[in-house]
Amino acid sequence: MNALITGGTQGIGRAVAETLAQSGYDLILVYFGDSDAEQVKTEISQKFGVKVAIIETDISDEKSIEIICKYLINNKLTLNSVILNAGLTLRDSFEETKMSDWQKVFFANIHFPVFLLQKIVNQIVSGGSVVFTGSLMGIEPHAMSLAYGVTKSATHALVKNLVKFLAPYKIRVNGVAPGFVDTEWQKNKPAEIRKNIENKIALQRFCLPEEVAQVYKMLIENGYFNGEIIVFDGGYSYK
pLDDT tens-digit profile of 36-61? Predict the structure, then answer.
């Protein structure tokens, strides 16, 4: 079994990679700018005894689609699962946001996955699964990144709409909308900000990457999930 994971060497993507490797999946991990990618490849391969390949490419660049496609074709690979996890954010203020930066986020978060799937759909096996990483910020308005929140809302809509287009291929498509996951990005937040967030979560803590990775595994392995967005936020804004 083969799984392609974008953003697969860090954070949620790496946790999903390790969870699937534990179940015997060989992996193709797409990444960009991660100096530890080779080490991650070696660690996962040695720990779980699976094949791990890495592809470095920038998902905000249209050429990335062709790079991934060529790799799959040249290596005669079919895919059992595609996890579209990589994404971009933009934290400029509303007043200072440039159209070029806005468009870059939309390309990476929406256009790239659509047209990658268009190119590789025939390499996904019948009964295969596609899982998108959405976000709680696509549901709960977020003051830090307008582009991110809007594109994640679009990601959720994309999952729902793709059901009709992937059904003829017998491919299921679902999404996970995580809340606050304890990745390196979140660990670098100031303690006061982290505490404010934790106070809004019924469980009073951030999610562990391996916990959310189990949700991806469930969506991949349970053949009746289709068109679902699983919100996984620990009870955010419960009070």
Answer: 999 999 999 999 999 999 999 999 99
**pTM for the whole structure:** 0.91
Q: Are 21 and 42 in contact (CB under 8 A)?
A: no
> Looking at the chain, which runs of residues are DSSP E strands?
2-6, 26-31, 52-56, 79-84, 124-133, 172-178, 229-232
Range of the domain at 137: 2-232
Residue type, 152: K
Kindly give, in sequence order, each residue whose CB lies less than 8 Å from that of residue 55, ignoring residues fewer than 6 positions away: 28, 29, 30, 31, 67, 68, 71
Q: What is the CATH number of the domain that holds 189?
A: 3.40.50.720
Does some domain include residue 218?
Answer: yes
Whether 238 is covered by a domain: the verdict is no
Q: In this structure, is residue 168 part of a structural domain?
A: yes
Q: How many structural domains does the chain have? A: 1
Q: Which are the contacts of 12, defined by CB distance < 8 A and separation ≥ 6? A: 85, 133, 178, 181, 183, 209, 212, 213
pLDDT tens, position by position, 177-212: 998 888 876 667 788 878 888 888 888 889 899 999
Percent of residues in the chain assigned helix, strand, coil, to nearest 5: 50, 20, 30
CB distance 46 to 57 below 8 Å: no
Identify whether 237 is part of a domain. no
- What tokens does 213 get? 């990775």
Please, what's the b/e burial string for 214-238 (b: 16 or more CB within 10 A of its CB; e: otherwise)?
ebbbebbeeeebbbbbbbbbbebee
Residue 184 is inside which H or E element, if any?
helix 184-187
